[in-house]
Predict the structure.
Amino acid sequence: MEKRVFSGIQPTGSPHLGNYLGAFRNWVALQEDYDAFYCIVDLHTLTLPWDPAALERRSIEGAAALFAAGIDPAGTVVFRQSHVAQHAELAWILTCVARMGELRRMIQFKEKSRGGDAESIGAGLFAYPVLQAADVLLYQAHGVPVGEDQRQHIELMRDLAIRFNSQFGDTFVVPEAYIPKEGARIMALDDPADKMSKSSKRPNSVVNLTDEPELVAKKIKSAVTDSGRDVIAGGDKPALTNLLMIFSLFDGSTVPELEERFAGSGYGDFKTALAETVIEGLRPIRERYLELMGDPAELNRLLAEGAAKAAAVAEGTIASVWERVGLGPRPGPQ
Ligand code: ATP
Ligand code: LTN
């Protein structure tokens, strides 16, 4: 059997350069050699306040962004998490395997609940990584291609799989994180200490895959830089390091090659060249995205097809989980 990969993206807003360079780019490459499942994780989006009127549209936009980036619906399964009921079913069973202590240690939980009143933080946010574990374990995936921010969540899903297997008998493949060597953590343009993020409230921090060329140029021109004037990367140059990494990933040159190319140029010339490179790199993705969004019925059809393929695999796993935990055989259709 071909090895399998699984990954997910939340329909929380417009996909951006960080999503593309840290995740989608890798997802596209992996679909050649792996049996690939990519999921629009709409149930995860319910863990923070959300807009019901926008959720469905954002899910369809997420699928369009994946196809526009090069995911091939003919060979790769793309679907919405809420369309495959087994995700929520397995999440409950794993919630009963997970421990309060290990969930409390999750950095994303701590970050996303910061500032709120401890007593009113949603329980869904606390259980978020358990649902994520269910996503992957249902498909017996070997690899989980994600950005650096997800490393701890993948560790937790490994722990849950190992614990379940030892308690109830071998059931799950124990997955591994596939984190790219470069681009796994693209930083915000206006603050190199902060991750570029869909849910950021600062529009100039993020380049969206669908931004018009003029807007991309404007955002890159306004990106913060470090003190000094040389275009070089380094520990004391977090802003330039981030911009050089983005340049390198689009252009194919290494960071030292770029440093050499821009030796003696000011930040202004460097940013102009970077903007051109990013605009050209995004152009085909943006054009394809707009074309796909012109036919939402077709995107819905592809998502329904994906959900049917995903459910067939997921049902096989949940049926053996039910037997192992003592719930017995799965009942037929009600
Ligand atoms: P949100 O702000 O809503 O949490 P996000 O921007 O972090 O959204 P996700 O949907 O959570 O995006 O993540 C989708 C994929 O993109 C994940 O694999 C994640 O690791 C990756 N990713 C997200 N942000 C970055 C980034 N700044 N650099 C590299 N990879 C990223
Ligand atoms: N938590 C992830 C999204 C996500 C995911 C998954 C990634 C949900 N389920 C399963 C990989 C595998 C995020 O916020 N990036």
User: Anything to note?
Assistant: Residues 296-325 form the longest helix (30 residues). Residues 9-10, 12, 18-19, 22-23, 146-147, 149-150, 184-186, 195-199 surround adenosine-5'-triphosphate (ligand 1) (CB under 6 Å). The radius of gyration is 21 Å.
